[in-house]
Amino acid sequence: MLEGKTAVITGASQGLGKALALAFAREGASLVINSRREESIRPVAEEAEKLGAEVLAVPADVSKAADVEKLVEAAVDRFGGIDVLVNNAGLLGPRVQILDYPEDEWRSVLEANLTGPYLVSKAAIPHMPEGASIINVVSGVSIQGRAEWGAYSVSKFGLEGLTQILAAELKERGIRVNAVDPGGMRTDMRAAAYPQEDPMTLITPEENTDVFLYLASDDSKDVTGERFKAQEFQKA
Ligand SMILES: NC(=O)c1ccc[n+]([C@@H]2O[C@H](COP(=O)([O-])OP(=O)(O)OC[C@H]3O[C@@H](n4cnc5c(N)ncnc54)[C@H](OP(=O)(O)O)[C@@H]3O)[C@@H](O)[C@H]2O)c1
Question: Is 152 a catalytic residue?
Fold first, then answer.
């Protein structure tokens, strides 16, 4: 389904990003994956290589322009271009009211979840051909503000806006930009957000990759500016 395509997936050391890296590898994509630490991203690269994929693992913080440039340059040097970008890396931040929200945490969450996708998209777009696809990972709290979701929710509202703006700006160039709300999944981030919840009641990220494969593939070639709920997506 993704043979001949190069996909950049941010925040791929665990959770959804890792599940997407392995699912994309199974479908024949070449991969560029990152997280902030070499030791956490390397094992995922090895697992994806065992599935037959060519993989470049680059430690990079998406909120830092210099790291992002290094990431995109390495991807282009190795694979010649970028067909799919999944802006998945994210931070939850504290679950407290705005009145109690520490300023430094506010800034780091916005930088990772909103400035990160802006920086990676801006660096990647010049290397994306017609038909390429950008997928931004959003959330239920990116269209509805709820108490104690603070900078996380605000950053994801911003990411919805970035998706719509980029979709409009890139339409002429044939680059597609869509948002996906994955819904609750059995990951570390979800467990941190809902410590009382039994994780076994949630689907795993590995069970939640269909819409991402669809948006990465040519099956969705005219789809842009849309918002998907991963757990409601029906495979054709
Ligand atoms: N889990 C859910 O139920 C749920 C629901 C709705 C939306 N989402 C969204 O889905 C995405 C994945 O969530 P998840 O649950 O899989 O989260 P997770 O398990 O916490 O994984 C987050 C990933 O992002 C990386 N990361 C964090 N900050 C980064 C930065 N500045 N630069 C590069 N990498 C960074 C982490 O690696 P390092 O720490 O090694 O850098 C890790 O690989 C996020 O965008 C999240 O907001 C999740």
Answer: yes
